[in-house]
Design goal:
Helices cover 40% and strands 12% of the residues. The strands form three sheets. Strands 1-6-7-10-11-12 form a six-stranded parallel sheet, sandwiched between helices. A four-stranded antiparallel sheet has the order 2-3-4-5. The structure holds 2-acetamido-2-deoxy-beta-D-glucopyranose (10 copies). The site of one 2-acetamido-2-deoxy-beta-D-glucopyranose (NAG) has 5 residues, from loops. One 2-acetamido-2-deoxy-beta-D-glucopyranose (NAG) binds next to helix 1.
Length: 548
């Protein structure tokens, strides 16, 4: 199972099979819910079940589970791999084809029932949480009333959640219960122990699972690498991610350094030194704060303002290898007064009101809040305290204006279940050692968190990927994935101190250099090509916007 969570956009639903599930038409409601895994056909080449889970409390949940059974078949069955939709085949390429890849929608999300929402209609939702907005984190520094406006918005969302939660279900959407569901699914498959790869929030889930069920760990990777990270669990369970921001500015520095080194051909926002690039960006940001730029495209319209620019920059820090070149182009355009280039990079069709569409199909933010705020100790900050929190966090990172949103979202949340798991995370004796992965410069889950988490599970292995960004999926690393394979297939941990490089460059040169060789153009074996494209495919399926 692969599990991940975009930050304020939460929960990539059908975890490892998300792209397959999103792309094809399949009506889960046609399946009879079952407490067994009946392996009914789902989508074109999977088998699955609407898996029933009973929660102490009001709801009987139905959690869709889809498994990639075909890739388990040896020999001629291999030809079926190519036909499997979505990322199933790519996971098989990475981990070997002896595994079933299992995806499921966590409770409350997407095809699970009941679904949660804070709203009666999509139109109501659009007014507070525009689905087309690229601003995941409104800046608390955008204006003098930004903190109070954010606070008020989340007070309102907290009250709407209570008003819509008539079934009393949201209190059960916590990470500990999702860990219990995973155990249920594992056992329904007839396995005694779990084999799991969790990225970002999926790491919180994995570590929580290993804490609650240490004797059920078969293989468990918690992955902070290139696009996600292992949280400092205490920070997570207290809704205080201040300590998570220690490397954010250093990740930004890789943009300045990389751009200066790439030269004017490699980086559109080039200046002769990193400090000049940094100063130019600061000047540009100040000018956009002063004078935002309206944009109209074929798809939509919008305003590139301070919030927009700050979010574009932060988003790029999560996936630098995919984003830095484009960010530089967007910034260069902006510096000449052309905001279209930056805007077009995340352009999406405008929302269309559709009164016959199901009211709450989209619920990223709602699910994020129900899980992370529901997990955490209650946050009762008033405006002054939230402002103080932001000011304190600003001493840790210049991105605190954005990342403090992770605190703000919980200020109005009042749904907490007595007796839920709130840490501490850790277990002396898991039935198999964990593999904890961290990348050297993660904007939201610093390496120190991986080191700390590994220490909480004595005997676990620690693998460092030498790259900026969030989780090991941000850039392909043949080295990292070979250790994953060795761990899953043979149970071998990387030697202590292992550091893996990535097979990608931040600013690949667009033209051949003096020796006639492009920076990215290296000889690869067919096997390497296959692995790299599998990683690329999983990355694409998750989408660049997935944060945390
Ligand atoms: C839920 O499924 C729909 C397909 O009906 C998809 O468009 C949407 O993106 C999914 N939502 C999430 C959170 O994955
Ligand atoms: C949040 O965490 C930071 C750093 O870990 C700490 O200095 C600060 O006091 C904490 N704030 C609250 C409100 O707990
Ligand atoms: C807020 O933004 C202004 C203008 O860009 C900047 O000078 C200032 O340092 C920012 N404050 C914080 C705390 O980040
Ligand atoms: C902005 O740049 C794009 C891409 O180079 C170009 O197509 C467009 O015409 C420019 N817009 C303006 C207003 O200059
Ligand atoms: C509105 O939603 C319904 C139900 O989901 C769908 O069948 C219909 O195609 C949608 N109409 C438009 C214009 O998108
Ligand atoms: C902010 O920092 C001060 C001084 O370190 C500390 O006393 C206070 O509790 C912090 N407040 C918050 C809300 O984090
Ligand atoms: C750890 O687990 C193993 C296997 O289950 C067992 O043999 C051993 O005694 C346990 N050690 C401790 C300290 O509990
Ligand atoms: C697992 O171990 C066997 C025997 O040592 C070796 O041949 C094989 O290459 C290893 N597989 C992986 C994926 O490391
Ligand atoms: C991938 O990176 C590793 C470490 O830098 C290097 O040894 C290997 O040759 C690279 N492979 C490819 C195909 O680029
Ligand atoms: C040109 O690229 C090749 C291959 O990456 C590299 O070995 C060489 O150092 C580069 N030369 C220059 C002048 O950058």
């Amino acid at each position: 199972m692969l599990s991940s969570t975009p930050f304020l956009r939460l929960i990539t639903a059908a975890l490892c099979l998300s792209s397959a599930l999103a792309q094809s038409e399949f009506d889960w409601q046609k399946l009879t819910p079952s407490t067994q895994l009946d392996r009914k056909p789902c989508y074109t080449s999977f088998q699955g079940t609407l898996f029933q889970v009973r929660t102490p409390g009001p709801a009987l949940l139905e959690i869709p589970v889809c498994a990639d059974i075909e890739i388990r078949l040896p020999g001629p069955g291999n030809s079926g791999i190519d036909a499997i939709v979505g990322s199933g085949a790519s996971f098989a390429t990475i981990f070997g084809d002896q595994f079933d890849i299992v995806g499921f929608d966590p409770r409350g999300i997407n095809y699970s029932t009941p679904l949660i929402s804070f709203f009666k209609t999509n139109t109501d939702r659009q007014m507070l949480i525009p689905s087309t907005s690229t601003i995941g984190y409104p800046s608390l520094n955008a204006s003098s009333d930004a903190v109070s406006e954010e606070w008020a918005k989340f007070q309102l969302l907290g009250k709407l959640a209570v008003a819509q939660d008539t079934g009393g279900f949201m209190q059960y959407m916590t990470t500990d219960n999702i860990a219990r569901d995973i155990l249920g699914i594992t056992e329904a498959f007839g396995f005694e122990k779990l084999q799991y790869w969790g990225i970002s929030w999926g790491s919180v889930l994995g570590a929580t699972f290993a804490t609650l069920f240490p004797d059920k760990v078969g293989r468990l990777i918690i992955d902070v690498i290139p696009a996600s990270g292992v949280f400092d669990m205490e920070a997570y369970y207290t809704a205080n991610l201040t300590a998570q921001m220690v490397d954010t500015d250093k990740t930004m520095q890789t943009f300045y350094d990389g751009c200066a080194a790439a030269g004017p051909d490699g980086c559109a926002f080039y200046a002769p030194s990193a400090s000049e690039i940094s100063a130019n960006l600061e000047e540009l940001t100040a000018s956009i704060l002063e004078q935002p730029i309206p944009v109209i495209t074929a798809e939509s319209f919008g305003i590139v303002d301070f919030d927009y620019l700050r979010n574009a920059i932060l988003n790029a820090l999560f996936s630098p290898y995919d984003s830095f070149v484009a960010l530089a182009e967007g910034l260069a355009g902006l510096a000449t007064g052309n905001a279209t280039i930056l805007y077009a990079q995340s352009d999406a069709p405008s929302f269309e009101c559709n009164s016959s569409a199901p009211p709450f199909h989209e619920n990223y933010l709602e699910a994020f809040m129900a899980i992370t705020c529901g997990d955490a100790l209650p946050v009762t900050d008033n405006v002054a305290q939230l402002r103080q929190f932001y000011e304190n966090a600003s001493r840790v990172s210049s991105f605190a204006d954005l990342l403090s949103s992770t605190r703000a979202v919980c200020t109005g949340w009042t749904i907490h279940r007595e007796g839920r798991f709130t840490g501490p995370v850790g277990a002396q004796n898991t039935s198999f050692p964990l593999l904890v992965v961290g990348n050297t410069l993660d904007p939201a889950t610093p390496l120190v968190g991986a080191v700390k988490t590994a220490a909480l599970f004595p005997g676990s292995g620690l693998l460092t990927q030498d790259s900026p960004g969030h989780t090991s999926l941000i850039a392909p690393s043949l080295c990292t994935y070979s250790y994953y394979r060795q761990y899953f297939v043979n149970g071998t941990l990387p030697p202590p101190g292992t550091v893996c490089a990535v097979n990608a460059t931040l600013f690949p040169s667009s033209s051949a250099n003096a020796t006639g060789v492009k920076r990215d153009e290296v000889m690869r074996s067919p096997e390497e090509e296959k692995l790299l494209s599998a990683v690329r495919e999983i990355q694409d399926a998750r989408g660049v916007a997935d944060i945390l």
